[in-house]
Amino acid sequence: MRQIILIISLLLAFVNLNSIQVSGNQSGNWIPENNPYQIIGDITVPTGSTLNVLPGVIVEATGNFQITAQGNIIAVGTEADSIKFKSGMPNQTTLWKGIRLENTSLQSQFRNCLIELGQYGINSINSPASIMYCHFNKNQKGIQAYGIGSTTPATVLIDHNLIEYSQQSGIYVVQNSNTEIQYNEIRFNGTAAAYYGAIQLANQSDGGSCSPEIANNHIHHNYKQGITAWDTVSANAIQPEIHDNLVENNLTGIYLRHASGYTHHNTVINNFIAGNMNSGAGIMVSGNTAQPYFEDNIITGNYTGFYLTENANPVLGDMSIYHAWAQGGNTISNNIDANNVRHTIACYSYTAATFTVKAENNTWDYDTAAEIDATITDYNDNPAFPTIDYDPWITNAIPIYLAGTIISTNPQMTSAELQLISYQTGNIINQWTVQCNSPFQVPVYHDSLVYIVATGRDLSQVQYMAAYGGLQNPTATQIIADVQFYVGDLTLINELPNWSTYKVGIPELINEHLSYPIIKNWFVMSPTQKLWLFRDGDYLRMSRYSLTQSDSNEVFDNYDLPSAPVWRKIANLNSDDSWQQFISYDPYTPTLLTGNATATAGIIYTSMGSDYLYDIININGGLNDKQIQVYDINSNYWIDYKLNTDYTVQAMESITPILVEPDGTMFPTQTGNVWKSYLLQQDTVPTYFGYIYSDSLMFYWIPPRSGVNMMSFKLYDNGVLITELPLSTCSYTVPIQYDGIEHTYTLAAWDGTNNNFALVPIVLIFTHAEDEIATPQPFSAYPNPFNPALFPLTVKYDVSKTKSAKLSIYNLKGQLVWKTDVNTKATELNWNGRDNNGTICASGLYQMQLIDNKGHKTHRKLMLIH
Question: What's the chain's average pLDDT?
Answer without folding.
Answer: 79
